[in-house]
Input
Amino acid sequence: MRFVREQDVVGDRLEAPHARHVKHLAAPWTMGTSKIWLGISVIEPGSSSNPHAHDQQEEVFYCLSGGGSILVGEDRLVLEPGTCVFIPQGEMHQLINDRKDEVLRVLSASSPPFDRGGWERVHAGEGE
Output
């Protein structure tokens, strides 16, 4: 068994124009997972993730706190605590914090898991 507490995870801070903080809670490079990646994205007011798609992974997002929206393909959905969204493999998506005074916190799970280099390439804006 392995465990981690969110407050102990340093994660990755991505810079503008898509500034956010991603904490890799369970990943092949953090806990040795082989079937899943689990992480938390923390997006400051007025920021977003980069628009991207995953050729090999499907992903689920669950809004923990704050609010904003998510673009999936051509569709835009309001995110609020308790909202769960499934992103099929290959579908373009983007998390957006369009609030002025609240941090958006989203838990996400992907399967199969990202490898470290693939995660960095896609989430830094280079695509996968």
